[in-house]
Amino acid sequence: MSDARDPQLLKGVLPMLVIGLLGAAESYGYELVTRLRTAGLDGIAPGTVYPTLTRLEREGRLTSRLVPSPSGPARKYYRPTPAGEAYYASALAAWDELGAVVGAVATRREDDR
Description:
It contains four helices and three strands. The protein is α+β, with helices and mostly antiparallel strands.
């Protein structure tokens, strides 16, 4: 994804991406940042991801556990709750519907040229 992306677009989709990745494999914060970067969000900063994790946990969409680390302080691992999985399914469906609308508008614009 381009570094010129709209921050508001990322803000709207980041919770869905976070829950999606954590549903595949639980992670601690920085590992999740690395996974997001690997997925294509090259410029994503930990300062963007950690508040999202905190909010999703506060909302009951994530749960966490502390795991001792051999190289420093314990790490907080996150995984989705059933409410988080339901949110993910709903958000993904909404994203698919929005993508279809964007695609239809873009196609219509190209056809009008």
